Amino acid sequence: MGAVQDQQQIELPLSPEDVPFAQVYRFVGDMFDADAPVPAEAHLQKLKEMDDITAKTVLLVLRNLENHLSVPQFERVRRLLSTYDPTRAMSGQL
Asked: Is 24 exposed, middle or buried (0-12, 13-18, 19+ CB in 10 A)?
């Protein structure tokens, strides 16, 4: 069995029943919802109210997202996404 290193270890493999992925991705999506901005403190409070495995999964997903978005190979996609206007089609192409 492998383990993900963090403050504590999470034993793997996890089954889909172990982590409520819908809750994880709903939380992440809410963080980036421009139509309903929420203060960071409110997100932190929601995170504190989650069970331990769900909160750790949220943090892992956010850490992975940050790492992936910061690599040079993603620069072209990052620039393209910065041109996105939800009221119109994207101005660039992948």
From this structure: buried
Taking a C-beta distance cutoff of 8 angstroms, is the pair 32, 40 a contact?
A: no
| Alpha-carbon separation of residue 7 from 34, 59, 67, 92 (angstroms) | 31, 11, 18, 41
pLDDT tens readout for residues 72-90: 888 888 888 788 777 775 5
Q: Quick one: DSSP state of residue 34?
A: T
Confidence of residue 41 (pLDDT cuts 50, 70, 90): very high
| Cα 32 to Cα 40: distance, rounded to the nearest angstrom | 11
Residue 3's H or E segment, with its range, is: strand 3-4
Cα–Cα distance list, 80 to 15, 69, 72, 74, 83 (Å): 35, 13, 14, 10, 5
Token pair for 55 = 């909160």
